[in-house]
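S.,

Sequence below, as promised.
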Amino acid sequence: MPSPLVKPLVRSIYEVAGQRILMPERMAKVTPDLKRALYGIRDELKQHDGKLELSDLFRSYDMQLQAHLDYTSGKKKAFSPPPGGSMHESGRAFDVDLSRLKVPLAEFWQIAARWGVVPIIAEPKASISESWHFECRGSHQKVYEHYRAERGTNFKPATAMAISAIIGSGVPHDRFKGKQDAAYVQSALIRLGHDLGNIDGDVGPKTLKVLESLQVDPAAPAAWVDKVDALLQQKYPEEFFDKAEDDLSAFV
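The prediction came back faster than expected:
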């Protein structure tokens, strides 16, 4: 199975009757490892009288398209790629209200890092665009590194990572219509440490050779997904199983 998208209890910047509310249902979807990270970061910030309050979390295809159109029209200044290229679409990214943290941004980076969450800018300056954007990349960081080392060449590293994360969460991707399972297998094999070139949904000799080395019948495509799923769950259980405890009292 792909990484499930689960519901976190996390406060948003949106208000009802003057009070900030939990993240709306349409955006309250994350992978299990990000849910755990959000709770851990929230609890650490509470020690500094700070709050973790988000403006953005999961985006559907339509939400990502609108964000992209807002960017291209000039309505939105921060870059938003077209659908299929954002970590928000995989439930692995969030945008935070920096004014509520009560700690310097550099210190927040350290807190986030302890929970496997990273920024996308080079230095902790709140004046820089996207200083509010953070990602829980998990094993998809390996896809980024695979492409950065030019072992994959059909996408830029950040785009390849986002694509891997999106299909890894079971979200349909336009680029792989009719062959998303094959692309998922390729992504999974890279996350497991294998070098097989591009994620393109076209299973070639490299992919078949790796599958054979894993004792999967290359002639039985139906078994490929089951095999890589079992290996991924064994290596990265935090990405597949939700063990974070919800606590509504944390928002009182």
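The longest strand covers residues 11-16.

Coffee later?
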